[in-house]
Amino acid sequence: MLIPSLIGAFEDDMKAMGMRLSAQDIYDVNNSSLKDAIMHFGGGCTAELVSGQGLMLTNHHCGYSQVQAHSSLENDYLKYGFWAKNKSEELKNPGLTASRIVRIEDVTASVFFGTEGLEGSAKLLKMKENTDQLIADAMTNNHFEADVKAFNYGNEFYMIVEETFLDVRLVGTPPNSIGKFGGDTDNWVWPRHTGDFSVFRIYSDVNNKPSEYSESNVPYTPLHFLPVSAKNRVPGEFTMVYGFPGTTEQHLTSGNLQYIMDIERPARIAMRDKSISVIDASMRSSDLIRIQYSSKQARIANGWKKWIGQLGGLKTVDALQIKLDREKAYNDMAATNEEWNKKYGSVIGEMNALVEKYKMADFGYVMFIEYQYVGPELFGRARTISKFLTEIGDLEKNGGLAEAKQAQIEGAKGFYKNYDEATDKQIFQLLTEEYINRLGKDNVPAILRSSSPEELANAIYSKSILTNQARFEKFMAKANSKSMAKLLKKDLGVKLWKETEETFVKTYLPGAQEFKGQMDQLLKTYVAGKLEMFPDEAQWPDANSTLRITYGKLEGSAPHDGMQYTEHTTLDGIITKNNSGNPDYELLPRMHELAKAKDYGDYAQDGELWVCFTGSNHTTGGNSGSPVIDADGNLLGLNFDRTWESTMSDYMFDSSRCRNITVDIRYVMWVMDRYAGAKHLVDEMTIVR
Ligand code: ARG
Ligand code: GLU
Fold first, then answer.
1. How does pLDDT run across 279-307, given as a tens digit for each residue?
2. Best mutation site among 641, 657, 660, 663 for ligand 2 pocket (most ligand atoms within 8 Å of CB)
3. pLDDT tens, 611-639?
4. Which of 61, 224, 251, 568 is catalytic?
5. How far is the CA of 524 from the centre of ligand 1 (A)?
6. 61 C-alpha vs ligand 1 centroid, how far in Å?
7. Among the residues of 420-490, which ranges form H helices?
8. What's the rounded Cα separation, in Å, for the pair 230 and 227?
9. 362, 511 contact by CB (below 8 A)
10. Which atom in ligand 2 lies closest to the alpha carbon of residue 660?
11. Whole-prediction pTM value?
């Protein structure tokens, strides 16, 4: 996960692995380079430009909420896909952005300028002053946004300057039976056959500058776009992934890892076991609920399954022992030198002690997130209206109440469109039970102990204004400061929300924040020690949602004794999986027709249509949609996942076992051309054969 502006240091190694590009081809500030084709999509995923007219590819699961928002029972784009026949049919997506990195600059010296001799808050203040000045300077006389980000826990700082585009339209998406083929059964798993892509287009004003949606906007002309490769793939060939990895935690201490493996992760998994079982059953029971909950379900299940894989992987390689061994080596090295010993000799012990001290606070924190933010949606409803509830008295006095109430009713419509009362009620009951069990009765607010989860569920879901649209609208129509006061006293849903929130703020939040703050300080020292005492070891800063490069090879893996994963899958495998009868492998008839006719267009290799392939590139969440690029800078496919055995790489990357999963661009083009009849999109790209 290398910083693009420093990629020059790796050029030789990359060339030795077969790359034919120069460091400047990959990252350059003065001339266009590969980086100009890489976009941060919606702030979470990665996307890449593939035509001179702003055509952009990302993963199906990255554009999923946009597709979902455009879908209804009449226009079921989730089930049947969507393809704009021409630019005028492309769909706008309010709020969706795509950002290009203008430049990345090491500003460590400037951030620390004038801090010599300062300590504590005086030092932080000076650093903040420096940072603000750097940002202000970078944003003068241009339309860019700048930010200064800490790397290696504050041992280094980099300024990131971005150009953010605001008019991003949906061009096409395959049906779920392609884009989400394999569903949760296959998620995080190899062998894989998912056509995980969707197609967008960036629009700009006539001067090629970002602009809010407008009919007068025109397709954006990129500084660079990626040609796509239809050449035969060769196992062992060089691959590189360019994108925005979110978070890795390679430096966790043994104590922290143990807490995560034994307490934190199993509890979060258990919470989601429950909500997923309810949502899955509801989605199977009705098409409406299937559409309403598809996006939420995917979000909840994704983390859940990754964590299960991580725990498995960490146990299999005995990550805890590896950590302990490394910690011993670190301490032994520190002991060889008095100065090192003073600076680094105690840091590991302090980190482990910190975990002991704060782990229950941290646990309360994450469980609250699972309960209130991932769990039943009545809590989210309460958060949404809470500001209005506190302002109602003022609005009454100063005017504006009627409009504010109408706005609440309108806003709620969007929420209730994707809400099923019976489903939420069951989630509430099961998660409340699990929450109490895991945290312990004494550690949850009194209201949760006042009656059984079932009784609470019955009481809330029959009376609260949070859980039912008609009740909500009725309340809103007449709402005033008096009815509000009554609501806070009588509405059990609102009361429960308030009490759990207050307990959280009082009991768990302060400790969890202390934990993180102090741990980051210790990590800064710990990492500084690694850099100083082990200068010959490969070092890279943990992912932090900034643009990074990772490289490796197109290759399979053998993570289990006696088992070998090949490096690619084919269309035949889709049909085989479909034959198993698992609903996650459902297909629309068109796929059968094309597969039977072996209609592969000119996208095949040796008579096979490749669907996905794996590589030894170190990726994580946020790398979804990232281009997987060949030795010459051509697009081989879109990164979208890791294998089950390798999800542990967020804590510990192991190049012999960790593999990223890519959907082959030739399959993407085949779907556009042969499956969807959208050959004009393929024609818009530059194909290298
Ligand atoms: N696991 C991939 C990622 O972390 C893909 C998730 C979407 N697919 C799914 N079946 N939920 O985002
Ligand atoms: N699917 C992930 C994402 O949304 C990428 C896969 C991973 O975590 O490796 O970013």
1. 999 999 999 999 899 889 989 999 999 99
2. 641
3. 999 999 999 999 999 999 999 999 999 99
4. 61
5. 32
6. 6
7. 421-439, 446-450, 453-463, 469-478, 481-490
8. 10
9. yes
10. 9
11. 0.91
